[in-house]
Structures are given as structure tokens and as C-alpha cells.
Batch of 4 targets.
Target 1
Amino acid sequence: MTISARALNRATLSRQLLLAREPLTAAEGVRRVVALQAQHPASPYIALWNRLTDFTPADGEELVARVVEFTRTPRSSAEMQAWLAELYGAERKDAVWWGMKAYAPLHHVPTGPPWSFGARATFVAAGEGPAPRGRTVDQEALRTLILRYLAGFGPASVADVAQFSMVGRAPVRAALAAMADEVERLEGPDGEALFDLPDAPRPDGGTPAPARLMAMWDSTLLAYADRGRVIPPEYRPLVIRRNGDVLPTLLVDGRVAGVWRPTAEGVEATAFHPLPAAGWDELGAEAKALTAFLGARERTVYSRYHHWWAELPDAEVRTL
């Protein structure tokens, strides 16, 4: 089966909840998209705002304060699971515990309340003993990671999986070969081999994709070796800076069309190519919603990165 470039784009947007916001909890949303970039405190909040209906910042820290209080005394895994079962029921405790192990600040010293812009992270040693050495690949762990990655970002190539997992291409290729009965092989737009879960959603290439104001470092822009499915190649050096910063982008018709930044006057949108009136209207509606979402919080989030705007080429700029 061959998949077109446009259909590949729509598959990614569908897995990443960017074709339509969905009525999920924050925990459910994080699990669906597999990974959220949290290099800046605002990014996971804006990423979830882009993907979930009725998401509020408090949803992303609702459980953390209780976890921090509960773990002021060292707790075993069994004690944590029993506690979560009391809160969420025995049928949900395993899923919640999975998320807590990955995202709860159990090894970080809390620096402030939710949405703590400007606070520098403080860390405490996660344990004692020598640091792990070597690059031995755990085959079962790699299989699980590949399945989760394909669920959130597929279809994908060997190079894409290796880029995301930071595992060499040879082990990834071998793992995919061993998983022939679990994954489906497709032919990409340029004839490259792509892999995907057989029952994963792959919308038609003509499926409408609404405009979005993407967070800095959004995983959708970073999860592939070939980022052309979302970022036009000519825009990549404008969006992904030499030091690795990934500017907040405008997504129009499913692809990066420019960048945005919040200012005191509103959301300043810079389009790298002419946009249709409908595209600007959608971006305007998103800007209005984002302004309401930010509320009384720091209105000029990401302002420390605004120096990159001086290096952008001449383009159409509008304040939304």
C-alpha cells in the first residue's frame, strides 16, 4: 500500500489530536499523543490546549499537589498503587500509576504552583549508586517503545523511529523485522519503507485540518528524521534554530506556514507565504481563544526567545 504525502500529514495530525480537539482528560490526552515537550513551562499547557476541549491549566497539575504531599514520606510502589486505587478506583489505578511514574515530580524539588514561568528547575538526586553505563538495548522495551511511537506518530520510517527513540537504526530495523506480525509495511511518497499499526487511523488526504498556534518545541515538529511531513523544507531553518530552539509555529492546512509570538497587543503572527482569508480567520479565532486561555498569567510567554524574530525574512505580519 502506498500513502501520499498529504495523507501522511493527516495521519500525523489525527494521531496528535490536531484535526479536532477531543473531550479527553489531561492524562488521557498525554497518553494519546505519547510525548509532550516541557522544556518551557508553557509548552505542555499550550500543547494540550491545542488538542483538548475545555482544557484548563489546573487540569495538568490537578493530582500533583496531592502526590507531593503523599510522598513526603517515602512510599513503595504497592503503597502508591493502593492510594491511587482509593482515588480513582481499582480499574483505573494501573493507567494512572503508569502516567505518574513518567510525569509526577517525584524526583524534582517543587519550585512553585502550576504554570510557574521563570522558575528555574531544582533537582534532587533520584537515587544512589553508580550511574548506568553502556548502550545495551532491551529488546522488549524497544518493542514497547516502537508500538507506542507508531500509535502516536506513525506511519514512520526506521530513521524516524531511531530519531525519536535515540536508538541506532540497526537495532530499530531488527526490532521492526521481528515485529512483522504486529506492524504493517507501507510505501511512502518517495518510495521509502514506512511502518504502522494495522488498525491505526489514516484519514484521507483531503480531510480538513484546522489552523493551530503550536507551542514551542511541539513534538509533532520534532518526532521525525524527515520533518517535511509537517514543516516545508524551506521553512525548517527559520523554525528550528541552530541551537535547537523550535519557534512557536502557525499550522495552516496541516503544515507550518509561519511563526507566532504573544505581545502586549495580542498574538503577532508572521506568515512565510500568503495565506487565504479563511486561514487568517481561523488563526484569529485561535488567537482569541489563546488569549482567554492565558488569562491573567504571563501574557508574553516565550518572550525570552523573541530575539530570533530579528533573523526572520520579510514576511506578512499581523496582530491577531
Target 2
Amino acid sequence: MVAAIICIATACHRSLVPATTPVTNLEIKNESGQLILAGHGSHSVLQQPNYKAWYDQSYNAYMDDAAMVAQLKPLLAKKSIEIFLGSWCGDSKREVPRMLKILQHADMDTANVSLIFVDNSTQNYKQSPQHEEKDKNIHHVPTFIVYDGSKEMGRIIESPKMSLEKDLLTILKVAPYQPNYEAIDYWIKQVKHRETALSDASLNSLATELKPLCKHYGEFNAYGYVLLAAQKHTEAINVFRLNTFIYPNTAGVFDSLGEAYETIGNKPEAITAYEKVLALSPNNENAKKKVAALKG
């Protein structure tokens, strides 16, 4: 699966300053046969042939706010930023080059900007080979985490709420800021005992609270797969079950719940979930095949 190891110590022509950060990245093939980057590295690796076109297009097309950048410059001193991204991810392809352009114009030291490329395969979903994402709740990418020393000041998740410059300035000024995926943030910060099996009554009550914070069923679905890949099986099942209470008429949430139960070897619950898919979507061929295989 490993196609190549890319070791780059030199800077590209649009580097942050000074551009001396050594780079080690794995270039691997994902489940679709697509070459992607995985691991810790510098933005100079994005000048490689498989990534240069989209990086340059997004970078060159973005006109950053010079007045905002001027305000950011002194606030970024002695700060560091981790950027979790996927070279396979459309949001990362759009937002990361823009952010790097902003940081370049704000004269941020490249040594204080870390890029961590995550995988999109089923078994390593949103994970890097070195697992820098561990215990950092990386569920959507890109995720930009701003640090003052070792303390997280805030993060921008997937896309800015206002603009990258305004969101970053808000975080650096320690003003109130809520990134995207507020429902997941609520689950992580507010729900106690989420790593033990929760009752239907508890999940139903939580669904009532969380429904107004959700934009679509894919939010918790994606998070469930992140937890499943991280071997956090009980919390993953809780999340997938929660999603069925938030979206009880959506076949896709029961399909994902069935897949999760199948993954951990719980065939009876997997069958029940897939049968619910068929109750909502009688012509769902995948669910038909799954039920037949699991009963067979």
C-alpha cells in the first residue's frame, strides 16, 4: 500500500518564514486507489505533482484581507497552529491553501505551523500514521487548532463561520467563538458516561436537545465512523444510535448503525438495523444483501 516516502527539507517558493522545517510524509493509496498524503509534514510537500494543481489554484485565487492580516500579525507571535487535513478532502483543498497564504502574509514562522495529513480509509478514518489526532477529537477536516504554549485557544472546523481571518482573529483575541459542528462539541464536552452503553431513554432525551444544533444526519454519522476506526466501539454505537433518534425517518442512519454492529460482530443488532433500513427504503439493495448474508 505504501507508494513512496517523500522527504523534503527545502522550501517551495510560497513558504512561510523561515522555511526550514524538515518534512517526512507517507504517500499511500487509499481504498479507491487514490494517492494521498499521510503523516506529519510541511506545506512544501503540497508542491508535489499530485497536489500542486489544487493547492496553487486555491492559493492564487484567494485574496486575503490585508487589514485583518495586519491585526493578526502581532497576535500570532509565540502562538502555534496545528492543521489536520486530508489531501483527498475538498474542504481541505479549499481552506488550507487560503490559511497558509494568510499566515505567510502575517509573517508566521513555519516552525510554529504543523500540517498533519489524515487517511480516509475505513480502518484509519481521520487518522495519521503517528496518531497525532489521538485525544484531539478530530472529526471533520480541515481542523485548525490554535495554541498558546500547550493550551488550546480555539479551533476552526472544516470552514470558517465568518472568514478565516475574522475567525482566527476572534480566537486570538480570546473572544467567544463556536466552530462548526456544535452538536458534536456538545456531545464531547457535556455528555457524561458517553463511553458506556446509554439507554434508549437517555439517547432519546439527548436527541431532543441536540436536534436544533444539527444541520444534517451526516454530522454524527461521520463522527461515529471516526470513533469506530479508533476502536472506541461503545461510544461509536452510542453515536450511531443517537443519530437514529435525531433522524428516525432517515434510512442512512440505520444503515450506518447496522454497519457498526456488523463491524463489532453483533449480528442480531446488525440485522435489526438493516431491517429498519428496508422498512424505510424497501428497495435498498445493500440492506437486502446484508440481511441475507447475516442470516445466511
Target 3
Amino acid sequence: MLDAPLAEADSTHGVAWTRKDLLDTDTLTRAEIDLVLQTARGMREVRSRPVSKVSTLRGTTVATLFYEQSTRTRASFEVAAKALGADVVNLTASGSSVEKGETLIDTVSTLEAIGTDVIVMRHHRSGAPFLAARHTSASIINGGDGTHAHPTQALLDLFTMVDRLGSLEGRKVVIVGDVFHSRVARSNAWALLKYGADVTFCGPPTLLPRYFVPTVDGRRCTMATDLDEAIEDADVVMALRLQKERQRHGLIPSLREYISRYQVNPARLRKAKPDALLMHPGPVNEGIELSPEVAHGAQSLIEAQVANGVAVRMALLYLIAARSRV
């Protein structure tokens, strides 16, 4: 028997989850995203109980297969799976047969053969989860692939925004930083546009998309290089992590100039709406993307994003692993 909050989520708008895999947000319908968010609310209620576990996925095996380092995504998926009663197998490329030359297809085939039902996968190559999904009957959840997509991060970000703002229709969301290489920005853009938000990508010209401009129902992201102008009257400001290799590759003139022009600090945040939300997918390079005062200020939802990540990932595991019950 399903737990009450989960049974209620099952009937959201009469929509049933039928997808074997979650690879990105671009193909999800608004109704499917609504179902994920509603289910996540039920999961958050489960997490708030004195005993914050259910046995809904007892007998299900979830494997985390990470070819890149991760703290938040991997840990939250493990907590989410265990909170639903699933068995969890953790694998990394380091120390596995990958070091002996085992291919990705071989690895997912092995996991399927030992009885794995869901594989949560992070890979440094864009498209790797899509390849894996074609070669296994196990469900694949994309935990981040190269510079392409990070759908679970986008869904937890969306959940956090909707939780605080209600409707996102007409809300201004500014995503600032290294958008060009950001899988988080891409997946967020698809989801936000489907919810009616006005999305602005802001950053140095060298770190803005050259050919990729998400468009939904004729609405598309806008590009900006001046953060002081872009942030005006914003409802949400999301800063992206600046990876150190971008500095070495000459994509920014200097770290000092980047901080001067694109760091979200108190003066800049005051140009947004007074109750604007501040977000960051983490980990934060404090003093670079965000000033310390902003990172730990009252408008910061960074810790809420991490907490909501468990509820959203519980929802996804539940919907995908138990889709035959929905």
C-alpha cells in the first residue's frame, strides 16, 4: 500500500509518469513537471516526520554511477533512495573496471545483469546518459553530463522558486556566470520557460552561448553582458560556479575583472526586487560569484536548494521506479 502523501501525488491532474528515463528537461511536458513538483511536496512531508523513511521502493536497487566528482547530487540521491527503502550501490570510475578499459555500455549492462533497476549517472561526456539509456532496460537518471544537461538540479531549482514565489508567469530570472559551459543553466532555461518565466543569461561574451538559445512556444532566453542592467527588478538571481579552467584558457581577462563586473554583491542585489531570491547550484566559490554577505544573507536560498534536492530526487526515484503502479 502506498503512503498517503504519495498516493495523493499519484493522481495529480490525472497525469501518469510513463518515462523510463530522465535525461533532460527539454522533453518534459508542463504536466509532467507539475507531477514531479507535487510528488516532491509529498516527499518533503515524509522527510519532516520523526521517522523520515517509507518502504515504497523496498526491493528496488538504485546504483549511482559517477565518472565525475560530486557531493550534493550523489549524496542527495543516496539519501533519497534510502528514505524510500531502496537498496543503494555506489560506484565511481576510479577503482572500478572502467580503469581496466570497461566501456560505458559494458558497465550499465553489468549493473542491469546484477539486478539494478535505476542508474543515476554523471559523466564528463555530453550525451553519455543518452547512450546508456539505449543499451539497458534499467532506468537512467541523468545526474549531469558534460556541458549539456542537469535535469534534477533544474527541477529542484524550479521547486524552490515555485515554493517561494507561487506562479512564475512573467517573473524575471537572471542566470549569471559561465552559461556557455553550464549544464545547470541549460536545463533550468527549458523548465523556466515552460513555467512562463522571463529568463536572461548574463555573463562575459566569451561565456555566453553562441548557438544555443532555448525557445518554448515562441518565448526565448535573452542575452546580456551588463549585470548591473540585467539584474534590475529581477525576481530571482542565480549565479553559476566559475570553474578555474576558464581562467587558464583565457576566456576571461582576469579573475579581478570578472569579480568587478559579474559578482553578485549587496549593491547589485539591491537593484533586483526587494524580496528577490538568490540561488546557486553549488559549490560556491565564495568571493568570486557571490560576495560573503550575499552568500549567507537573508535572501540566499542555497541551503534550501540542497534540502529540496532530496525531496525532488525522492519524487523522481518514486515516479520512475514505481511507474508501473502509477
Target 4
Amino acid sequence: MSFEIVDNVLNITVDSTMTLAMAAVLLLIGYFVRRKASFLTKYCIPAPVVGGFLFMFVTFAGHMSGTFSFTFTNSFQDVFMLAFFVTVGLGASYKLLVKGGILLLIYWVTAGIISVFQNVIGVAVGTAVGLEAPYALLSSAISMIGGHGAALAYGTTFEEVGFTAATSVGAAAATFGLISGVLLGGPLGRRLIVKYDLKPEEEQQNFDDISKVNAASGEALSSLDIIKNVTVIIVCMALGTMVSGWIGSLINMSFPTYVGAMFVAVIARNLNEVFHFYNFSFSLVDGIGDVMLNLYLSLAMMTLKLWELTDLMGGMLVILLCQVIFMALVAYFVVFRVLGKSYDAAVMCAGLCGHGLGATPSAIVNMTAVTERYGMSSRAFMVVPIVGAFLVDVIYQPQTIAFIKAFVPAASSLVG
């Protein structure tokens, strides 16, 4: 960490190790504040969000007052995201994927249809307020479902055809979506649970097998077993990054690295179930995933720049508010009923708000905040990560490209 005064502004440069340390401390502060402020627990606001928000306001105050600023070296965030999705993939036994059955299909199709409506809302509202189509689309499924990565990729494409503010506008829209997703999901899930007096099923038919499939052998893991489990996670991260690169080159567009990593991890888990290469420990992998997820979100929230939201033009802000209102209404009144009006459905709606407005890790954190208070939902934790991290892209990406070709002809040749 170094300090330098430039133009009467104290510039604090933080290296990668200190950035990670600050995120870890803020995560613990988030848990502490949440325990002390009962309304945060009551409304299921995730601990990483609490700690990250506190620090965001500190950096925002420094920026607005012109007295100090932080420059972070955020080298670990993407690594933690990759590691988290690998642990999700390693939890996806074929036996469990089959158990997902119709619920997985319903949630997948529902999330895909919502992504189409997001683009329809963006174009319709954008036309009504006189906003150019690229900026309207950047305020839609691109940033809501695709997050910062997609906003950057598509924003760069739009800049190449003359829309010079596309990247900054996309980043601002994704920031707005991420914040909205983590603030909306927990309270919405809680409201459904409380209103309908929902309880976790004591015996989740067919889904009891989740604990059976992932049950520990009863033998203590040796240090070599732990090393093997960790090594598989790291190798899946590396191979998954390569796979995503290959897919990206085939489809001539950016392909999320975490999707490839999760795909490789699913293959590794199921090959190991057949050939027993090593003593797989779900509890160890799940614990590592939980740590990675919380640190990822703490880093993400801590380094967000609230002042980027000033890049949101009036029309874009209107669209984004409409997107949040649409997500809240469709999750509360439609998706909850489509999924069966059960406890699992309520938890999944909390997750939908996370990955439908921000990112899949936000969905998991939302669901974790809800289930920590009201009880576990195995169905939700099996279905939502798979759809949010991968399957929804099968619908979201092609229809978004179709919207771009229809409304931004100049960019058609650049998106496939």
C-alpha cells in the first residue's frame, strides 16, 4: 500500500494482497453488523453486501469531496469466481441433474423468457424516451443477465461502430443491476415465505438423494485427499478457461470463462463417480465454494464505484428502474406460482432476482441469506446455479444478438 498526494487528493494505491485482506475484513464486518442490526437479518441482506456497501460509501465520500481515492489491484476476484463455479460444477452429479427433472426445465425456460422481455422492455422504453438502441440494449439483458463482462464485451462492439459512451454506460448499468439484485432478492424471498407461511419440506421427495449422493464416506480425509480435491478445483479452473477460449473463438464472441470451468467440473465429477480417481469430498468442496463466493462478492461490492452511476443518462435510468420493477413483479406474481408456490419456489425467486439483475454469485448469496434464516432448499441450490451460470445463456445470447441485428444494424457483422 502506498500513499501519494496529487492535486491535493490523497491517492491510496492498494496491492492485490492488501485488497484481498480488506475484502476479508469487510466480510467479517458485514457479518458483525448484520448480527447487530436485526432488520438486515430479518430482510435477508447478505453479509458481503453489508460490508461492501459500507466501504463503497467511504470511497464515494472521498470521490465526491475530492479529498482521497483508492486504486485497487483486484487480481483475485475473477479467480474466486472461477473457483466458486468449479465447486458448483463438482456438486452436479449426473444423478442429481436427472433428479432436477421438470423443475430444472421450467426454471430454465422461465429465465430465458424473462431475458427476452428484458430486451423488449429496453427497446420499447428506450424508443419512448428517445434513447438510442445500443444504450437501450445495454440497459437490458446484456447488463442485467450478462453482468459487467457482457456489458464490456458488447459495449466495446458498440463503440467500434460509433457509440463512444457504450462501455462506460454498460458498466454503470451492470453496477446498477448488481446492487439492485442483491438488495431485492433477499427481501422478496422473505416476503413470499412470510406471506404464505412456507416451510422447508422435511422430506423433499427425490431430492433427499442430494445428501445421499454427496454423503461423506465417514472416513477422515487425509492431507493427500485434501490436496487432491483442491488440485482438481485448480485444474478445472485452468482447463475451463481454455475451453471457454475455444468456444469463444468458434462463436466469434466473448464466452464467460466461468461457464467453461463449471462445464469441465461437471465432467470431472461424473467421471470420478465412474472411475474413482480420488476420494471426492463434497463437504470440503462446498466449504471452499462458500468461502470463494463470499470473498468474490465482498471484493466486487468493495471495488464498485458508485459515482459510475452518474453515467446513466435519464432514459437509461428509466429503463433500469423498469427492469427492476419488472423483475420484482414477475418473480413475485408469476414465477413463484409457475414454480409451485412452495418454499423452494420462494428461495428460487430470490436467486432469480440475483442472476436476473446482476450475476449468478449474487443469486447464490441471496439464497444463502434466505436459507440461513428459514431453512435449506436443496432444489433451489441445485437448479439456480446451473441455469443462472450456463443454461440461461443458451436463450439469452442468441435472442440478444437477434435484437442487436434488428435494432443496431451497424453492429450486426461484429456479433455473429
